[in-house]
Amino acid sequence: MSNKKRTKKISKKPKITTIKLLDETKMRIEKLREYKRESYDNILRKILYVLNVARDDPEKAKRVLERISDLRQRRLDEEEQRKEDLEKEKGKN
């Protein structure tokens, strides 16, 4: 018999799962989105990060949330400006 140990192949690809959310919860999570195509996984990780930081440094957590809010507002303003620009272009044609 061989003395070689059998080892399991470890998959480097992370396992993906599904979670059920109420529509209200989903919309609240989406309000924390910093950019349009940010994944729910990234948003939830960000929430967990802020919660962990809040335990030790509430002011830092507040700054992170303010930064998220500022980035979100900037993204919404840019999207609104793009829509207005498109409407102006349509009006010229």
Q: Return the domain count.
A: 1
Helix fraction?
55-70%
- How many E-type strands? 0
Order of helices and strands: HHH
Main β-sheet description: none
Tell the overall outline.
Answer: extended
Query: How far is the N terminus from the C terminus?
Result: 81 Å
* Uncertain regions spanning at least 5 consecutive residues: none
Which secondary-structure class do the elements indicate? mainly alpha
Rg value: 22 Å
Mean of all residue-level pLDDT scores:
86
Specify the number of helices: 3
Beta-strand portion reads under 5%
What structural keywords apply?
about 90 residues; 3 helices
Textual characterization of the structure:
- The structure is a single chain.
- This protein is an all-alpha fold and 93 residues long.
- The protein has one domain (23-92).
- It has 3 helices and no strands.
- Helix 2 packs antiparallel against helix 3 (58-92).
- The protein is extended, with a radius of gyration of 22 Å.
- It starts with 22 loop residues before the first helix and ends with a helix.
